[in-house]
């Protein structure tokens, strides 16, 4: 059960999205720890939604699904604002000193908020659990499954931040300018897609 949860956590976290872009940019700008902590915010949200699916909390999942339009709207607007801010951020050399706790907490909260406002995440867990027959009958089994999901997701963010960290030493001012432009544009695109999926722009 734990190994299956580990695999599911890895599989759901791995696809490239706005969280991955944020993690890569944060790693290049502030170091591996900052990138990994940012990823942990998403892993925590994955664990939360995994717990809702594993423990059969249908009332909570129903509320989230029924309110998926406003949730996507909030997430989309946040992504647009975040992407715009990144585009306007002046390039600076990667940090050599450690990032302050406040900055780490902000990075963690940002990715947690973005992931938790995406109701498709819980639908993904519910579909995967049902498809694989992973509906634990005991609380202990569900807890082990959720732990595996969280650690699997966290493992992906550890790998991504570590791999990106190797490129960090080669980043210079000009490179960071393009990193800001590209990551800001990609995040804005994801925000626009999130808003379009609400149907409110039609």
Secondary-structure content class: mainly alpha
The shape, in one word, is globular
Question: What is the residue-averaged pLDDT?
Answer: 75
- Counting DSSP H or I runs of 4 or more residues, the number of helices is 9
| Count of individual beta strands | 0
End-to-end distance: 44 Å
Radius of gyration from the alpha-carbon trace, in angstroms: 17 Å
State the order of secondary-structure elements, H for helix, E for strand: HHHHHHHHH
List low-pLDDT spans: none
Q: Helicity, in percent?
A: over 70%
Major beta-sheet overview:
none
- DSSP strand content: under 5%
Total number of distinct structural domains: 1
Topology:
Layout: H1 2-13, H2 18-30, H3 32-54, H4 58-66, H5 68-87, H6 101-116, H7 120-131, H8 139-168, H9 173-197
Describe this structure in words.
The chain is mostly helical and 202 residues long. The chain has one domain (2-67, 92-172). Helix content is 79%, strand content 0%. The protein is built from 9 helices and no strands. Helix 2 (18-30) packs antiparallel against helix 3, helix 3 (32-54) runs antiparallel to helix 8 (139-168) and helix 5 (68-87) runs antiparallel to helix 9. The longest helix has 30 residues, at 139-168. The protein starts with a helix and ends in a 5-residue tail after the last helix. The mean pLDDT is 75.
């Amino acid at each position: 059960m734990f190994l299956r949860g580990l695999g599911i956590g890895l599989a759901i976290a791995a696809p490239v999205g706005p969280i991955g872009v944020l993690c890569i940019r944060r790693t290049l700008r502030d170091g591996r720890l900052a990138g990994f902590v940012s990823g942990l915010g998403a892993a925590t949200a994955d664990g939360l939604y995994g717990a809702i699916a594993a423990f059969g909390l249908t009332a909570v999942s129903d509320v989230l699904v029924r309110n998926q339009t406003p949730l996507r709207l909030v997430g989309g607007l946040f992504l647009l604002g975040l992407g715009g801010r990144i585009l306007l951020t002046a390039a600076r050399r990667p940090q050599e000193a450690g990032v302050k706790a406040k900055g780490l907490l902000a990075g963690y909260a940002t990715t947690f908020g973005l992931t938790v406002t995406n109701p498709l995440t819980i639908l993904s867990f519910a579909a995967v659990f049902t498809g694989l027959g992973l509906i634990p009958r005991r609380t202990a089994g569900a807890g082990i499954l959720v732990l595996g999901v969280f650690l699997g997701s966290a493992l992906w963010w550890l790998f991504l931040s570590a791999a990106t960290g190797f490129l960090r030493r080669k980043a210079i001012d000009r490179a960071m300018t393009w990193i800001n432009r590209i990551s800001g544009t990609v995040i804005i695109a994801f925000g626009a897609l999130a808003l379009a999926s609400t149907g409110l722009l039609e």
